[in-house]
Design goal:
Strand order of the largest sheet: 6-5-7-8-4-9-10-11-12
Shape: globular
CATH superfamily of the largest domain: P-loop containing nucleotide triphosphate hydrolases
Strand content: 25-35%
Number of helices: 11
CATH topology of the largest domain: Rossmann fold
Largest sheet: 9 strands, mixed
Number of domains: 3
Number of strands: 21
Oligomer: single chain
Structural class: alpha/beta
CATH architecture of the largest domain: 3-Layer(aba) Sandwich
C-alpha cells in the first residue's frame, strides 16, 4: 500500500511546506498552516493530444460584438461596465452582513423578471431562508431557480442541464470538490473550485458570479491567486451601523475600475442612490467649530463629504490620535505639518477625525479639509457653511493640485456652496468662476478659511 503523503498549506497566502510551523515564513501569519493530503500528479506520455490548443496569428482572430447582460440595477451595471459579460467569472467580496447576498439575489430577481434564466446556489442558507429573503426584495420571475448544495460536481451537473444565463455561487468558501482531499474553505479547495468554475464559464458561455468572504484585514479570504483567476473582482463595503454601501471594482477585464456604485440598505433591501452628491450632508443644519466640507471622488462621481474634528487637551502624558474613515498615519503627518509650518502646537492635545456617514476616504485631496477641521476645533472657530475646502498638502506646507477639480466644484455649486478654497495650480482648468480662492500654501489657505481670525 502506498504511503499517504501530506503537506502543510498556509490558509492566508498558499505557502506549503512538508513540516508544520507555528508562523508562515512567507506572510508571517501565526497558526495558519493546515495539514492537507498531497495529490499525485498525473504523468503525461506526450506533448500533443488531439484536443490540444494550437497557436494562431493574432490578425486571424475574429472578434464579435459582446452583448452584456444588464442586471437591472443601474449602480451595479455602472461598476461592471454596462452589465455582466457572458462566459465571465465575477468575484464579489465584502464584510459579513454588508449585503452581498442581498445585492446578488436582487440582481437575480431582476434577471428573471427580464426573462433570463438564473441558477442561484447557496451553500449557507436553506431554500426556505432564500425565499424569505427574496420576499423582502420583490416578486421573482419564473426563470429564477434556487438550490442548497455544497458539492461542486453536482452543482455543475445541474447547471449543464438547466443551461442558465447566470450561475450564482453563494459562497465560494462553502463549496467542496471531492477530487481534493482537504477541508471545506481551505486554500486547496478554494483554488480548485474556482478553477473548475472558470473552466465551466469559458466552455459553456454561462456567466458565473461567486461571492467570497473577506478576512479581518479586508482582503478576500484565500490566496491572492483567487483574484488573479477571475475576470472581475468587486468589493462591497460599508459600516454596518450606517445604511450606506459602496460597490467598487478592484479588477475588471471588460471595463474600467474607476466607477463606484452607491447603495442604501432599507427594510426592502438595497436601494440605489443615483445622485449621491449631497447625500451625506442631509443632517448638516448649522456651522459648528471643527466641521468642514470637501468634495471627494467615488469612481467618477464627486461626493460632498463632511469632515469633523475634535481637539481637546489630553489628561494623559501621551496625546491620543484617532481617525475614523481616514488614514491614521496621514492625520499624524498633517498634525506635524501644522506644528512645523504654522507653529500650532498640538503636542498636548488629543485629536479625533471622523468622516460623517461611515465613508472611507483615501484620496489626498482631503488633506486641506482635515487641517481646516483641526484648526477650527483647536481655536473654536466656526467655518461658514457655504465654504468648500480642497487640496493636497505637502510636507513643506504647499497646497498641491487635485484631479477633476471642475467636476467637484460644479457639484458643490449645484447644492449651494459659494466659496471654494482650491489649489492655485488648478486655476487653469476651471477658468473664471465666482467664489474661487486660489492658494499656494497652507498659511494662505488658513487665512482664506478664517478671514477674521488670522
Amino acid at each position: 500500500m502506498a504511503k499517504i503523503k501530506t503537506k502543510f498549506v498556509c490558509q492566508n497566502c498558499g505557502y506549503n511546506t512538508s513540516k508544520w510551523q507555528g508562523k508562515c515564513p512567507e506572510c508571517q501569519t501565526w497558526d495558519s498552516l493546515v495539514e492537507e493530503l498531497e495529490q499525485a500528479s498525473k504523468v503525461t506520455t506526450g506533448y500533443l493530444t488531439a484536443n490540444a490548443a494550437k497557436p494562431r496569428k493574432l490578425i486571424e482572430v475574429q472578434v464579435g460584438s459582446v452583448e452584456r447582460l444588464p442586471t437591472g440595477i443601474a449602480e451595479f451595471d455602472r461598476v461592471l461596465g454596462g452589465g455582466i459579460v457572458p462566459g465571465s467569472l465575477v468575484l464579489l467580496g465584502g464584510d459579513p452582513g454588508v449585503g452581498k447576498s442581498t445585492l446578488v439575489l436582487d440582481a437575480g430577481i431582476k434577471f428573471s423578471m427580464a426573462g433570463q434564466r438564473v441558477f442561484y446556489v447557496s451553500g449557507e442558507e436553506s431554500e426556505m431562508q432564500t425565499k424569505m429573503r427574496a420576499r423582502r426584495i420583490g416578486e421573482a420571475g419564473s426563470e429564477l431557480f434556487i438550490m442548497t448544495e455544497t458539492l461542486l460536481s453536482n452543482i455543475l451537473l445541474q447547471a449543464e442541464q438547466l443551461q442558465p444565463q447566470i450561475l450564482v455561487i453563494d459562497s465560494i468558501q462553502t463549496m467542496y470538490n471531492e477530487e481534493i482531499a482537504s477541508s471545506v474553505g481551505s486554500v486547496g479547495q478554494l483554488r480548485e473550485c474556482t478553477a473548475k468554475l472558470l473552466k465551466f464559464a469559458k466552455t459553456s458561455g454561462i456567466a458565473v458570479l461567486i461571492i467570497g468572504h473577506v478576512t479581518k484585514e479586508g482582503n478576500i479570504a484565500g490566496p491572492k491567486l483567487l483574484e488573479h483567476m477571475v475576470d472581475v473582482v468587486l468589493h462591497f463595503e460599508g459600516e454596518r451601523s450606517y445604511s450606506f454601501r459602496v460597490l467598487r471594482a478592484l479588477k475588471n477585464r471588460f471595463g474600467t475600475t474607476d466607477e463606484a456604485g452607491i447603495f442604501a440598505m432599507t427594510e426592502q433591501g438595497l436601494q440605489e442612490v443615483p445622485n449621491p452628491a449631497a447625500l451625506f450632508l442631509q443632517e448638516r443644519k448649522q456651522a459648528v467649530a471643527g466641521a468642514v466640507v470637501t468634495a471627494c471622488l467615488e469612481g467618477n462621481r464627486p461626493l460632498l463629504v463632511e469632515f469633523q474634528a475634535l481637539v481637546a487637551q489630553t489628561p494623559f502624558g501621551m496625546p491620543r490620535r484617532t481617525a475614523v474613515g481616514f488614514d491614521y498615519n496621514r492625520v499624524n503627518m498633517l498634525l506635524a505639518i501644522l506644528d512645523k509650518r504654522q507653529g500650532i502646537d498640538m503636542g498636548m492635545q488629543d485629536a479625533y477625525i471622523n468622516v460623517v456617514g461611515g465613508l472611507k476616504i483615501t484620496e489626498t485631496a482631503a488633506d486641506l479639509a482635515v487641517i481646516a477641521a483641526l484648526v477650527s476645533s483647536f481655536k473654536n472657530i466656526e467655518i461658514e457653511q457655504d465654504v468648500l475646502v480642497l487640496g493636497e498638502v505637502g510636507l513643506t506646507g504647499e497646497v498641491r493640485r487635485v484631479p477633476h477639480l471642475a467636476k467637484r466644484l460644479k457639484e458643490a455649486q449645484a447644492v449651494g456652496f459659494k466659496k471654494f478654497i482650491v489649489p492655485a495650480a488648478n486655476l487653469s482648468e476651471i477658468g473664471k468662476m465666482s467664489g474661487v480662492f486660489a492658494v499656494d500654501n497652507l498659511e494662505e489657505a488658513l487665512r482664506k478659511i478664517f478671514p477674521r481670525n488670522r
